[in-house]
Amino acid sequence: PVSYVEKRSGNETRTPLFHCWLCQPRFANMIFNRLAVAAALCAAGSTAFIAPKNAGQVSFSHRVSSPLSAATLETAATETEEVAKPEVMRPPIDYVWNDVAGQLKEAFGYSDAEIESYSNEVEGSKDNLMQIYKALQMARGFENACNQQYMQGKIRGFMHLDNGQESIPALVDYAIKNGDKKYSYYREHTHAIASGVDPGEVMAELFMKETGSCKGAGGSMHIFDKSAYFQGGWALVSEQLPYAGGAAKSILLDRALGISDDENYEKQDVAPPADDDRISVVFVGEGGAQNGRTAELLNSAAKDNLPLLLLVIDNGRAINTYTGDVATNGDVYQQGKHYGVPGLKVDGHDAADVAKGGKAVIDYIRSGKGPAILQVHTYRFNGHSPADPEHERGRKDEKAWARSDQDPIKKFEDKYTANGVFTEDELKAAKKEILAEVKAAVKFADESPMPPVELAKELEYPDAPDTDYNQRPAPTYADAVNKRTISDEQMATVTAHIDALREKAKAGDISIGDAINLAIHEEMLRDPATTIHAEDLQAGSSYDIPKLTQQTYGQIRAADEIIDEGHFIGKALGEGMNGYRPIVELMNTNFGIFGMAELSSAGNTYATTGGQFDMPMTIVGAGGTAPNQSLGAEHSQPFHAYVMGIPGLKICTAASPDAAYGITKSMIRDNGPCFLFAPVKMMKEAKGVLDLDVCAPLNKAALLHEASADSVANGNAVTVLTYLHGVKEAQLVTEEITDEGFDIDLIELRSLKPLDMDTIRTSLERTNKVVILDESTQSGGVGATVSARINEELFDLLDAPVKRLCMDDAPVPYASTMEVGVVKRGSDLVQAVFEI
Fold it and tell me: Other C-beta atoms within 10 Å of 91: how many?
């Protein structure tokens, strides 16, 4: 390592410029070439490295490094050559405490006395300063160890290091409490440790060991710890923003309903303490903060006065691209002005100032004043990942300069040894203590066992597919919570509404939309932890699915949402991780395309967290593609096929009120994410009787019509598999089929995933022929999956190839004359049965 003394305004500060490449085995074969080049450069003479005085650049002289150098090994350099500092694209902000204090007064309304108290709490406490220093050293030491282990092949996959940004985990360690909800992104090792996650468990997770925080299922980008309320580790940029909003909403729900977590993190009928000041913290880079989810989160947080901290880690790089090249507003902390959300910008070079200013912002939120933004201007010493080539403009020069000039650990050491707060020996002893913990974490991970292969399948669903939800007990606190949160007038209104729907159900006059609405009300009363999100919710949306929910349970449990499904699916995910059972109604299921990232993560959460976090979430809506529906391509997409590939997601369909009712009830009680598709053109026209108070299975198909024994004996029976509008189409032509001497086993695929192969097998043992009337495309459709499963598992039962009647791969046209060539219908089924 080489250390330089920066000359600025007559003052000198020693800072290390380069890391020691010998620490990284992959560079060992390059070190001699590097040293040779360095020696040649030094021999060229000092004048070659001195910028002209009018060049506006800062010069450095070559000196011995500090014995406390945290980012480098100790050295004994004796040369005194001067070199020019490389031009950096993003200069430091060099804030002092007064710069921070001024913002706290203007944006947050703090008085001089209050600001002084935040300063004194840090500067006047040697214990607090030592806590900050140890957190800095833990972050640096842990990430350096990760880098070493990665180079040795013990850590695999993608890994993203936090070197240079240590003031952020130091703030977390200093000012964030265990009960606060923490949502980070893929560069989260240090955030997790600062939040109280054991370093050994974090390292073991990176080593893919069973003792890891997620049993080796998550890895570097997915650290979770339920006991520390550290809720990710999320790998899709900015996806964590709405999740943190949902987590913040769960805090308000706890207070409004008077319930809290017990020792097993299950809801109990105990109100949070009167001084409950929990908050939700979400970390995001300034590059990621340019994502539209930021604006949506600020709007939501301001509207609901959420206890939320948006912590922006501003390292000037969107991956490695200079953020200024792709974004015009780098001052993310000012984005909240449009929503009445205050923001503070601090200099990450000074960890003490970050702690002081950050604590003031956090206390503002804890006091109930609403959300806030904290932007920490910092520099990342490493590339995006160890595999990163770093070819982006200015990145390598900036990284080398930042290591020299913007190291928060070096600044802390220089500042507090110079003013006499600490001796060098005290800081050395603290560093030694922390590095011993890091070494122990590596040893623990190295010696831990790998997870068993069986664990992967065990983590597919929180609840087994064959769960009987009728046996699941209701929360014991339901009546008490309902009594204190629902007025007598509201209860009378909703009871009358439920009674009217149940009478319709008995008379066979209830629609699919009303059946789902009935199930939702029954379940929301049965379990007050059930919530609902929808567009147009107050008005009942398009099919009355959320009708009377907000009028009964209030906005806290029944939320009208902005028109972005990804946003409120994401908020539901955050609620689900924190003990609630959110329902999401999609006005049209195709609008769920906006929420693919959130749906994907909902399906992955239980497994990724090693089974720590259940993910109860019910998504329900009208969709599919009926013949002659005249809705055009965007409203006629087979979204049910799009989500089939999402692991961990249970997917059902319901073409009748009875199926919709029973499946909805079961899904709300399930501890994992479930998606119910209902047929958009049958929501109001299909009527029927309900099997009241009965939950339907989530893994079973339904035999709606059984082929006659004669047709089976004569070889004229065919198994027909269909769902959604295909059920109606098949029922309309069944008589026509039988009139021609044929018959069908009509099976409704109520469970698309998991697929009920047992029912299909039983039918094929009789008919030996199958036609699939599929409401999705030829490529990648539901029918393709079903056909493949039949051919792989039931081939010996087939007397003829599987016949698929699926939508053409072309977009669905609006005009009926064209649409008939894309969407299959009853007439196509008749022809297919005759042919097979």
Answer: 8
Are the CB atoms for 192 and 200 separated by under 8 Å?
Answer: no
Query: What's the Cα-to-Cα distance from 794 to each of 747, 772, 790, rounded to whole Å?
Result: 16, 15, 5
Among 32-36, 81-85, 728-732, 793-797, name the one with the lowest average pLDDT.
32-36
Cβ contacts of 463 within 8 Å, gap of 6 or more: 670, 671, 672
Least confident residue range of 164-168, 268-272, 629-633? 629-633
Q: If you write DSSP's letter for every residue of 30-99 in order, what string do you get?
A: GHHHHHHHHHHHHHT-GGGGPPPGGG---EEEEEPPPTT-SSS---------EEEPPP-SS------HHH
Distances (CA, A) of 456 to 117, 605, 609: 51, 13, 12
Cβ neighbours of residue 338 closer than 8 Å, sequence gap 6 or more: 298
What band does 388 get if pLDDT is binned at 50, 70 and 90? confident
Q: Provide the 10 A C-beta neighbour count for residue 499.
A: 10
Residue 691 DSSP code: -
Q: Which residue in 818, 804, 832, 828 sits closest to 636, CA to CA?
A: 818
Asked if the model's pLDDT at residue 352 lies above 90, the reply is yes
Rounded to two decimals, the pTM is 0.89
On the CB side of 64, how many CA atoms lie within 13 Å of its CA?
A: 7
Task: Determine the Cα–Cα distance for residues 298 and 23; give it in Å rounded to an integer.
Answer: 43
DSSP code at position 333 = G
Q: Where are the beta strands (DSSP E) in 742-813?
A: 743-748, 751-753, 770-777, 803-807
Residue 99: what pLDDT?
Answer: 97
Nearest to 38 by CA among 67, 75, 8, 69: 75
- Integer Cα distance of 654 and 656 in angstroms: 6
Reported confidence tier of residue 244, pLDDT bands at 50, 70, 90 = very high
Distance CA 278, CA 248 (A): 9
* DSSP designation for 632: T
What is the pLDDT at residue 211?
98
Yes or no: say if 200 and 225 are a contact pair by the CB < 8 Å rule: no
**Model confidence over 598-616: pLDDT tens digits?**
999 999 999 999 999 999 9
Contact of 590 with 621, CB cutoff 8 Å: no
Contact (Cβ atoms closer than 8 angstroms) between residue 22 and residue 28: yes
Chain centroid, CA 204 distance in Å = 22
More confident residue, 61 or 832: 832
Residues 447 and 474: their CA atoms lie apart, in Å, by 43
> What average pLDDT score do residues 492-519 get?
98
Dist CA 749 CA 733 (whole Å): 18
163 within 8 A of 382, measured Cβ to Cβ:
yes
Provide the residue type at 721 as one letter. L
For residues 100 and 457, the answer to whether their CB atoms sit within 8 Å is: no
Among 16-20, 299-303, 510-514, 776-780, the range scoring the smallest mean pLDDT is 16-20
Closest CA to 285 of 237, 215, 335: 237
- pLDDT given at position 516: 98
- CB burial string 114-127: b at 16+ within 10 A, e below: bbeebbeebbeeee
